[in-house]
Amino acid sequence: MVRKGMKTILLIAALLMIPTSGIVYAEEGTEPPSTETPSAAQDYPQEETKEPAIHTERNTSSGFDDELPDVDAPKSSQEPAKMESSGSSFLQDFNSDVTPVLNGYPVRWGTFDHGSINLRDTSGSDLYNETKCESGAIYSVTMYPDPGYRYKAGSLENKTTPAIKFTEDQVNKYVFTMPEEEVLLDLEFELIPNYDQTDVTLINEVIQAHPEAFNQDLIDQPEQWDFVTWDTIGNNMLGIIALDLSGRGLQGSLDVRYLSYLKTLSCANNSLTELFINEERINTLDCRQNQLQTLRISWFTVLNCEGNPMDSLEIVNAGIQYRSLSVNISDEDKQAGNAAYIQSFNGSVTSTPTYTLKAFPAADYQFAGWKIGNSIYVKSTTVLEWVNSNTTVQANFKIPLQILLPPNKIVVAVGQELHIIPTVLPENAPNKEVTFVVIDLGKFDLRKDPDNPNAFFLKGKETGSEQFDLYVERFSKNLSVQVIDRAFIQPAFTENTISGVKGSYELDSSLSFTAKGSGLDNQEPLWEDWRWVPVRWAIDKQNADSIQGTFSSGEDQQASLSGLSAGNHELIVEFQKEIYNNWSWEPAETESLSAVFSITEPKPTPAPTPTPTATPKPSESENPTQNVNVPSSQAPRIIKKPKPEVKATATPEPTSTPAVTPKPAEKPGTPPPSATPAQNEIKKGGWPWWTPAAAIPVVAVIGAVLFLKRRSK
Predict the structure, then answer these.
(1) Residue 282 pLDDT more than 60?
(2) How much is the mean pLDDT over the chain?
(3) If we measure between CA atoms, which residue out of 191, 157, 153 comes closest to residue 172?
(4) Does 204 fall in a domain?
(5) How big is the CA angle at 4 (ends 3 and 8), to the nearest 5 degrees?
(6) Do 451 and 411 contact (CB within 8 A), yes or no?
(7) I need a surface site. Which of 227, 273, 520, 663 has the fewest CB within 10 A?
(8) 265 with 287, same domain?
(9) 33: cis peptide before it, omega within 30°?
(10) Phi, psi for 334 (deg, rounded to 5)
(11) What is the rounded distance in angstroms from the CA atom of residue 320 to the CA atom of residue 297?
């Protein structure tokens, strides 16, 4: 007991001798208590105390007045303001003495009309004119316009060599970086515009009425109206004196009557149908290429209205009609498409206005002339007219008489007589007689048709060429007559040919052939000449199921014989006879020409004799009932089943026999070297018999048996 007690005391003393230095127990967030004051030289060296330094570099921030404290401006450029250190972290990097910029470059500026400027550094200190500024530092220019004026955007610039980028920091304040040479600042102040509100309202209405021509964001933005010219009209008020609306796509009506100061209006190249202006104030108007039909202007106006379908122009003086010009055409002419307009006008206060009139006849019509009163003035489509009083001009149109005779050259044979019947237009003028004048009748004769006043006979007498004229009223047509001496070209049907057809074709082949009609090379046909033209073809009788085609692509044709059976077949080509009469080829009867061919079946080709192939003998390991002809490398192999008590996978034997290496004799009961414990594990999950753990129960049983045996004795 004493020994056991001593052992316990010694164990407790050993535990109490464990050193406790380095183990500190403290609550979270508190420092551990110090039991020993460390020396200044070893554990806590004292930092060297320094006076806070004043930073001499300039702040490059773009915020001047809002970010830095106000500092009194220096009394002169040689006495910069001093900053006292307060011991804060903000001033720890600054030197207490600010060195003046002795090696900088001056910034100069002159005096400005209607305003002034201030130059400041980043501290917000005002700098005097010609102050030397540090290159690379940021400075600001602040504008102070006089009342009623403003800084003119974009006018601030450096007048010396280097281009300086001025960046807007806030309204009327710009910043820049000082270059490495002097700067000369220049800018402008402009009068704040005082627009006439009536003019602004009227232009707003024009913008709203024409969304196809204006961006609606322009409403109440007179400074962005690039189509308006403003001018001072008194009391610093700005009014609109000119409008340029050309080519904006304006449609419909334009009303600018109430722009009281408007003197010049340009609205050319639009689609305006109406134009309302203050006719007594506007002195220049350009309304070309619109759709204006009427216009009222002042008598002293200079006008260009070319390209408008304008039939009425009224000139007024002091609100009273002074003179007018109207162009009239009949309703029938309007329906037919005829038109006549006042093309342009030029007038001034010192001269008589001059009008340009122009007529536009429709197709198949002619302009018959301008009529004033009961007299024809002139037949030219364009005319200048001086108007001193109210005037009405009538434009007249008519359908001209025409002689329709297709060729300008008539070919006739010697002794041949042609009956020529010209067509006279318009058809509602049947009593207009066709006449002709022949100076020399040496080559042919002309005589009237007693039954038709517009027809005549022409007979060839002698080879050669002559001309004559046909007349209907004042319209004439010149004709040339060529007399030739040759027989009529009238080929027989048997002169037509079909070529290229072979005697026989194979099944599903194709047939190519050429059909030539006789008389097709006649380039100067005479009346009563004829020719044969191939028009269509078919194989066998032409019906819905037959193979057929036309000669629209030419005389050379190709037909597919696909679908035709073996045997005899017939290619049929139809030719049409055409007779030349009254200067054109007129169709007549048709006839057919055929060619016979046959289709034969191809001879059968004997099938090739198959070559027998030897069947290799199967190996002993293969199933004898299977006779599969496969390569030896792919021959099926027998996979032996593993024994049920051992989980082992049999490895297939290689196709080639490897060299046999003698192995050392193995002890009975020893597993092969290549086997793993898992492969030799008993299927029921027992211990492997060769392991030491397997001997434990055996030894226990043996021991129990011996114990019982001994006890029984």
Answers:
(1) yes
(2) 75
(3) 153
(4) yes
(5) 115
(6) no
(7) 663
(8) yes
(9) no
(10) -65, -45
(11) 11
6 domain residue, yes or no? no
pLDDT of residue 188: 94
**367 lies in the same domain as 230:** yes
Tokens of 471: 């007349």
pLDDT digits (tens, 9 = 90+) for 472-519: 776 778 888 889 998 999 999 999 999 999 989 988 899 899 999 999
Residues 228 and 350 in one domain: yes
Tell me: the pLDDT tens digits for 663-706?
A: 544 444 445 554 454 444 444 444 444 455 555 666 666 777 67
Distance (Å, whole) CA 156 – CA 161: 15
Contacts of residue 233, defined as CB under 8 A and 6 or more positions apart, other chains included, come to: 196, 239, 261
> Sign of the CA dihedral 676, 679, 682, 686?
positive
- For residues 536 and 583, membership in a common domain is answered with yes
Q: Could you list the residue range(s) of the whole structural domain that residue 555 is in?
A: 493-600
The strand pair at 167-170 and 271-276 is best described as unpaired
Tokens 């002042």 appear where?
Answer: 298
Residues 354 and 248 in one domain: yes
CATH number at residue 590: 2.60.40
Q: Is the dihedral of CA 55, 58, 61, 66 positive or negative?
A: positive
- Tell me the pairing of strands 444-449 and 452-460: antiparallel
β pairing state of 53-54 and 93-94: parallel
**Spatial CA neighbour of 299 closest among 390, 220, 398:** 390
Helix (H) or strand (E) holding 403: strand 402-404
Model pLDDT for residues 306-321, shown as the tens digit of each residue:
888 888 888 777 666 6
**Residues comprising the chain, all counted:** 713
- Angle (CA) 480 481 485, round 5°: 150
Residue with tokens 């707003």: 204
Q: Do 235 and 315 belong to one domain?
A: yes
- Assess whether 203 and 167 both reside in one domain: no
Total tally of structural domains belonging to the chain:
4
At 362-402, the pLDDT tens digits run 887 888 888 876 666 666 767 766 666 778 888 888 877 77
In a domain, 633, yes or no: no
- Whether residue 655 lies inside any domain: the answer is no
Q: What is the pLDDT of residue 440?
A: 66
